[in-house]
Amino acid sequence: MNYDPEELISIVAELTDLYTKGESTSVTYEAAQHLMEAVLYCIHEAESMNANGLVPCQQADARSLYKAGFQEVVDKVERAKGKYKVLISSFSSYGNRNLNDTVLKAIPGFFELYSPRFSPQETIITMDYPTPVPVEGKTGIDAIEEYIDKIEAEQRFLAKFPPGYVEEILRSYTADYKDQFFNMSEIVFKCKTDPIE
User: Fold this and answer.
1) What is the C-alpha separation between 104 and 91, in angstroms, rounded?
2) Each residue of 6-43: pLDDT tens digit?
């Protein structure tokens, strides 16, 4: 949907004031562009929501959509943190360093550095561990939440095998599986010979 540029600039001006903590009314062109992207990301979030009480997008102004979208981003961060807690409650890297570092270092790093207010569009981490179906067309918390969901689904799949089975399959696939940047469930799925009970 198209919005009045003056309305968007007004929101960016308010963000700029927060960003500079009121010490300046000007920022670089790049910073202003980054803040405009933050505003548009939040508006897109509002437009994408199944609006619980939100005025339909055709009738809502940019400011209302921005506020609703920002709240949706904040809510998604909390929801993703909850999903992450579930993921790590029974997490196993099966000895693979890439999966271990991604789940135990990179994802917490995302939550530590992510700024829903100033950079909701930033994904921050590279999501090095490949999932069977990549996360595509999403950024920011949308990408991270889907990434957590996919890793958690893989963990549930791998947990169905007896202890030691996954490592045995991976070791037979390549002796240095601990240092590889591949998706483990794809290898286990291709190599499994016994049906899962």
Assistant:
1) 9
2) 889 999 999 999 998 877 767 899 999 999 999 999 99
DSSP 88-153: HHT---TT-HHHHHIIIIIHHHHHHH--TTT-TT---S---SPPSS---S--HHHHHHHHHHHHHH
Q: How far apart are CA 127 and CA 142, in angstroms?
A: 13
Rounded Cα distance between 185 and 165, Å, is: 12
Contacts of 110 (CB under 8 A, 6+ apart): 123, 124, 125, 144
Which pTM was predicted?
A: 0.89
Q: How many CA atoms lie within 13 A of 190 on its CB side?
A: 9
Find out whether 5 and 84 touch, Cβ atoms under 8 Å: no
pLDDT in tens, 158-170: 999 999 999 999 9
- Is 106:83 a contact under the CB 8 Å cutoff? no
> Cα 117 vs. chain centroid, distance in angstroms?
15
Determine the Cα–Cα distance for residues 46 and 34; give it in Å rounded to an integer: 19
